[in-house]
Amino acid sequence: MRDTSAQAFEEVKNDGTIARQQGIILSYLSSVSTPQTSSEIEAVVHIKAHKRMAELERINKIRVCDKRKCSITGRTAITYRIFEDDGGQQRLL
Q1: pTM surpassing 0.85?
Q2: Which of 25, 47, 69, 88 is deepest in the core (most CB within 10 A)?
């Protein structure tokens, strides 16, 4: 990662932008009944969701689901679904 990229990441992490964007994505995913692609999420929430998906997966908030044709791009893409740890019982919502 370049110095400028690392610096920009630290700035958005420290000012709460990342947490805020993650919250928006999780809120949206909890409101839909089907897994969504990054582009489908971005079209609704108007933020660059693809930048947050790996982070959310790494902290066990979402899971990768099947691949399917994206309704926005028309290309095959992976989909994501919210994931909840309910007192030791992990489940997809």
Answers
A1: no
A2: 25
Residue 87: strand, helix, or coil = coil
**42: CATH:** 1.10.10.10
Say how many domains are in the chain.
1
Q: Are 27 and 62 in contact (CB under 8 A)?
A: no
Instruction: Output DSSP code: residue 49.
Output: T
Taking only the tens place, the pLDDT of each residue in 6-35 is 777 777 767 889 999 999 999 999 999 999
- Nearest of 44, 46, 84 to residue 63 by alpha carbon: 84
